[in-house]
Write a structure and sequence with these properties.
The protein has about 350 residues and is an all-alpha fold. The protein contains 12 helices and 2 strands, in the order H-H-E-E-H-H-H-H-H-H-H-H-H-H.
C-alpha cells in the first residue's frame, strides 16, 4: 500500500468558538424533548401508528438519492435549518416495525415469518448501504436481527445467516465496496503499513488512549486533539480524547454508565408482559450496546473504522436525537400497562 506523506501538525487548537457547543446543546435539548414526549406516548397508540411511521421513515431515505449531500456519498438532507441523516430514523422505526410485525405472528418465528422480516430489514439496510454507509447499514440490520433473536429465532436460521454472510463477503469485496472502504479493512489488518496515510487515524487514536494512563492528562490537556494529531476528534474518535484526558478511570466510569443503561433496557424488556413491549425494549437496548461496542473497538483498532459515533459523546445532532428518542421508547415500555396481545 503506497504511503501518502502527511506533514506533522504544528499549531495548537485553541479555537474559542462556542458555535459547535451551542449547536450540540440545542440538539440535546431537542433529543430530551423527544425522549420526554415518547415516554408519555401510549404503546397501544404507537403500535397502531407503527406501519405508517416505518413507511414515512423510508421516504427521506429515498429522497437522499435525489437531493442528498455528503463527503463520501449522499447521506444527508439539507433542510436549511439543519442537516438530517435519514438513516438515523431507521434506528427507531425498524425496531418498532419488527416488534409490531413479530408480536402478531406465532412464535418462535416460522420460515415465512423470518423471510418477511428479512425483507423488512433488508430493504432499508440496502438503501443505506448504497449511499454508501456500511456502518449505519450494519447497525440498522443488527437492531432488526435482535428483535428476531428475542422472538425465539431458531439457531439453524442464525447459522444459515452467518453462512450467507460468509459467502457474500468476497462478492461484496470485489463488486460492492468502494476503495476507501477496502482501505479501512486493510488498515485494520495492518495500520502500520501506511502510518502517514490510511493508518494515521487509528495509530493516533491508539497513542491518545495509551497516553492517558490511569488518571489521564486532565481536561483540555490531551496533546493528540489540541495539537491536531488526531483527526475527527469531535466525532468518530471523540472517545479517544476522553481516554487521553480522563484515563482508564474515565473510560471505566463511562462504560459503567453505558452498561447501566443497557442493563436497565434489558431489565425493562424482561419485566414487560406482552411480546410487543418486550421485543421493542430488548432490541433497542441491545442496539445501544452494539453502538458502544463498535465505536470502542474501532478507536482501539479491534474493529475496522466504519464511522460509527460513540453514543451521546460524539458530535452529531441526528444521532443524539435518535438515541435519546430510543431511550424515550424504552421509558414508554416501562410505563406501559400491558393488555393481552
Amino acid at each position: 500500500m503506497c504511503s501518502t506523506a502527511r506533514p506533522a501538525p504544528i499549531r495548537i487548537n485553541n479555537a474559542t468558538s462556542n458555535g459547535p457547543v451551542a449547536g450540540q446543546a440545542m440538539r440535546f435539548a431537542m433529543g430530551l424533548v423527544a425522549m420526554w414526549l415518547l415516554s408519555r406516548v401510549s404503546l397501544l397508540r404507537l403500535r397502531a401508528w407503527t406501519p405508517a411511521i416505518y413507511a414515512l421513515s423510508m421516504l427521506p431515505l429515498m429522497a437522499v438519492y435525489v437531493i442528498g449531500t455528503g463527503k463520501y456519498g449522499q447521506r444527508w438532507l439539507n433542510l436549511g435549518v439543519f442537516y438530517l441523516q435519514p438513516s438515523e430514523l431507521l434506528k427507531l422505526s425498524l425496531p418498532l416495525m419488527m416488534a409490531w410485525y413479530l408480536h402478531r405472528q406465532p412464535l418462535p418465528p416460522s420460515p415465512r415469518t423470518v423471510l418477511t422480516a428479512a425483507v423488512l430489514i433488508g430493504v432499508p439496510a440496502l438503501l443505506i448501504l448504497m449511499q454508501p454507509n456500511l456502518g449505519t447499514a450494519t447497525l440498522v440490520t443488527a437492531s432488526g436481527v435482535f428483535a428476531l433473536l428475542l422472538a425465539g429465532l431458531q439457531w439453524r436460521w442464525v447459522v444459515a445467516g452467518l453462512s450467507a454472510v460468509s459467502v457474500a463477503a468476497p462478492l461484496a469485496w470485489f463488486g460492492l465496496l468502494r476503495q476507501y472502504q477496502k482501505n479501512r479493512v486493510l488498515t485494520f489488518l495492518d495500520p502500520a503499513a501506511d502510518p502517514l496515510g490510511t493508518g494515521w487515524n487509528i495509530l493516533q487514536s491508539r497513542i491518545a488512549i495509551g497516553s492517558g494512563g490511569m488518571q489521564g492528562r486532565g481536561w483540555g490537556h490531551g496533546t493528540q486533539a489540541t495539537l491536531d494529531f488526531l483527526p475527527e476528534y469531535t466525532t468518530d474518535f471523540a472517545f479517544s480524547v476522553l481516554a487521553e484526558e480522563f484515563g482508564w478511570i474515565g473510560v471505566v466510569t463511562v462504560f459503567a454508565l453505558y452498561l447501566f443503561v443497557v442493563g436497565r433496557c434489558l431489565s425493562i424488556a424482561v419485566q414487560a408482559r406482552d411480546t410487543h413491549a418486550r421485543l421493542l425494549a430488548g432490541s433497542l437496548g441491545l442496539a445501544f450496546f452494539v453502538y458502544v461496542l463498535v465505536n470502542g473497538g474501532m478507536i482501539s483498532g479491534l474493529l475496522p473504522v466504519v464511522g460509527i459515533p460513540m453514543p451521546l459523546i460524539s458530535y452529531g445532532g441526528t444521532s443524539a436525537v435518535s438515541l435519546l428518542a430510543g431511550i424515550g421508547l424504552v421509558m414508554a415500555v416501562r410505563g406501559h400497562r400491558p393488555v393481552h396481545a
